[in-house]
Specification:
The protein is of the alpha/beta class and about 160 residues long. The protein has five helices and six strands. A six-stranded parallel sheet has the order 3-2-1-5-4-6. Helix 1 crosses helix 2 and helix 1 runs parallel beside helix 5. The longest helix has 17 residues. The radius of gyration is 15 Å and the shape is globular. The model has no long low-confidence stretch (mean pLDDT about 90).
Amino acid sequence: IMKKIKLLYDAIRSPYDIAHVIQIALALDCEIYTAGNSIPFDNKKIVDKIRSWNITSYPKVTHFETFEEAVNTLRSEGNILVGTSGAATKSFYELDCSEGNIVIVFGNESSGLTTYKQSLLDDLVKLPMNTSVDFLTLPVVTAAIAYEINRQFYF
């Protein structure tokens, strides 16, 4: 069975960020999930940006009305939900993703995952980085994490 990288985005709002997420998802054949008031991935700004890169296909995107619905559904399918947070104490590189049953959860672009939403997840991780940087943008974090999961799956 083919392992899939699974990525859940809560209330993602930036067309630019979504376009980059789509590019990464297509490059690695990821499963994409959105929750809450995320803008639709067929938004004209997103489509125009994707087309400007000569990308003509789209990944499958499953949308959940609420974050809780997403967590409950994905967990009921046997997945472990791991949130991303700069405040986490555990490094992403300590995570064993080789089984293929982990969903990486990203908060919105401006404030990340709320404390309440973090409490619904199975684990929290961060990407280690130099202290001179406060945060990484959503597309940068997505790429770093997705490519590391891909490495654990296949290399």
